[in-house]
């Protein structure tokens, strides 16, 4: 979560600044679903997040491009 590309993705492409509690709630719900719910529900939640992430790209302050679905960032 602390990789600059991940932080930039959240900061630049989410409503974190306007809705910090909502963002935290949605993240906690995702973690709970993928940890405790059925496999079908977990896979559906993962698919929803991946669908959003495939569209998110940006540039770090140093000019380095990033893509939120970059496997290195996801690892």
UniProtKB/TrEMBL annotation:
Source organism, top-level taxon: Bacteria
InterPro entries from the UniProt entry: MPAB/Lcp_cat_dom
Pfam families: MPAB_Lcp_cat
Single GO MF annotation: oxidoreductase activity
ER-bound oxygenase mpaB/mpaB'/Rubber oxygenase catalytic domain ranges (all copies): 1-74
The protein's name in its UniProt record: DUF2236 domain-containing protein
Native species: Roseomonas acroporae
